[in-house]
Specification:
Layout lengths: L1 H12 L4 E6 L3 H13 L3 E7 L3 H10 L6 E2 L3 H9 L4 E3 L3 H5 L5 E4 L4 H13 L3 E4 L2 H18 L3 E2 L5 H14 L3 E9 L12 H7 L3 H8 L2 H14 L11 E2 L13 H7 L2 E6 L7 E6 L3 H9 L8 E5 L8 H11 L12 E7 L17 E7 H7 L11 E2 L14 E2 L5 H15 L6
Parallel strand pairs: 1-2, 1-5, 2-4, 3-4, 5-6, 6-7, 8-10, 9-10
Antiparallel strand pairs: 8-11, 11-12, 13-14, 15-16
Helix pairs in contact: 1-14, 2-3, 6-7, 7-11, 7-16, 8-11
């Protein structure tokens, strides 16, 4: 992003850095802290909020920051910024309320908590970068609409696969092609993985076993591809997406799809297991101009009608500062819904579940998520995976069965359920089409 680095360099020279606060000092949050502190001129991490304060302090210390100040609210955070001292707090509301914060990075992965953060941040006029695709897939269309009305940017992030795909989609559109498949490359897909099976891997890399499980059991890929669908207007070919196993190069996928079906659907999101280069992303696109197809073949992209474009890596937290700068300096989202929801991530039983079971969270022992077209999910009353945690089953659900709203009792008083009702009502009223 040459435009972004030049703009940040000017902010650095002017002594006016983009001021960002982080909520969540976990594995990704600590990596992002190090990146901003040590490698991003023109940007300053002014605060970290984390419920365990020592983790926020640890993130700054690991990045080589010699002094931090504990603050209790937005006013104290502003005072620390004025004095040039990074702040830590166990109250997330402090970073939302501080006048000195330009943008917030939400990096917790928690849906209900993330909903509270995003709604308050938007109300306080803050740009928000989500390292929390779970919130985006669950209520992103509504929250993005609210952000637009408030004059701020709510965006997913560069570096995560959805953001990398969206950058590729924009590139492909920019050179005159029509994207028809936006895809993700996976190394493993097993819906029955659990925190127990993934414990050793998580310990090796210093990650949370539940988060690692959500990668392995297909929930995360479904969530990520739902955000891409919502940002492009694409859909899925079937519940769960295609999900083919393909051990060749992604370029070979141009022969695996029915172009007429892709056009009829308006494009689809998908994933493949085992393809190269992994763990990359790909876009398959077509061009209607035979003269331009001649040039594409000359440039070694094949004879068409589909042409393969790919990015062979995604660098997670390394690229998130670019998303912050795009939002603050250019009002540009790396990835955001273009309207109402296109794809839902629905809740599927990972094992036989009995009535009375209180469902555990993402990447747990009870459920996994699958991508489904939003109209079908709505018609069948399917329970979104983003609201499943804490729901109590009213009846038995067999292994691999879809859980519906009628099957559960929702926990009382949750913001995510309130937002879901508002989002569905906007769909019913045509409110998204009016944006």
């Amino acid at each position: 992003m040459i435009l972004v680095d030049a703009a940040l360099e000017r902010r650095s020279v002017d002594g006016n850095p983009v001021r960002v606060a982080l909520i969540g000092a976990g594995f990704m949050g600590r990596g992002l802290t190090n990146q901003v502190v040590n490698s991003v001129p023109g940007m300053k991490l002014v605060a970290i909020a984390n419920r365990t304060l020592s983790r926020a302090d640890q993130a700054f210390r690991e990045a080589g920051v010699p002094e931090v100040r504990r603050v209790a609210d937005g006013a104290e955070l502003d005072a620390a910024v004025d004095e040039g001292v990074p702040a830590i707090t166990d109250d997330w509301r402090a970073v939302c309320d501080a006048a000195s914060v330009d943008a917030i990075v939400e990096a917790t992965g928690a849906v209900e908590f993330g909903c509270h953060v995003v709604t308050r941040a938007i109300e306080r006029g803050k740009h928000v970068v989500l390292m929390n695709a779970e919130v985006d897939a669950t209520v992103g269309p509504l929250l993005s609409r609210r952000a637009s009305e408030a004059g701020v940017v709510l965006t997913g992030c560069d570096g995560d696969q959805p953001g990398v795909q969206m950058n590729l989609v924009r590139f492909v559109r920019g050179i005159g092609l029509t994207p028809l498949v936006a895809g993700n490359v996976k190394g493993l897909q097993d819906p029955y993985r659990t925190p127990t099976t993934q414990q050793a891997f998580a310990e090796r890399w210093g990650q949370d076993p539940h988060m690692v499980t959500s990668f392995a059991d297909g929930t995360k890929i479904s969530i990520e591809q739902a955000t891409v669908a919502n940002a492009t207007g694409m859909t899925v070919t079937r519940r769960g997406m295609g999900g083919a196993t393909h051990d060749g190069h992604v370029d070979e996928l141009v022969d695996k799809y029915d172009v007429d079906e892709l056009r009829r659907l308006g494009g689809v999101v998908d994933y493949v297991v085992g393809s190269q280069p992994g763990p990359g992303v790909f876009v398959l696109a077509t061009h209607d101009d035979p003269r331009q197809r001649h040039y594409l073949e000359l440039y070694k992209l094949g004879a068409g009608p589909l042409y393969s474009f790919y990015t062979p890596y995604h660098l997670c937290h390394f690229e998130v500062p670019t998303s912050v700068a795009r939002a603050v300096l250019f009002g540009d989202a790396a990835i955001a819904p273009v309207g109402g929801p296109q794809v839902e991530v629905v809740t599927i039983a990972k094992r036989d579940l009995s009535a009375g079971t209180v469902l555990d969270g993402l990447g747990g022992y009870d459920t996994y998520g699958e991508a489904e077209a939003y109209p079908a999910a709505r018609t069948e009353g399917l329970l979104p995976i983003g609201v499943a945690e804490g729901c109590r089953l009213l009846r038995d659900v067999a292994m691999d069965g879809a859980v519906t709203y009628a099957d559960v009792e929702l926990p009382p008083g949750r913001l995510v359920d309130e937002l879901r009702r508002e989002q569905d009502a906007l769909v019913d009223s045509g409110g998204f089409a009016a944006r």
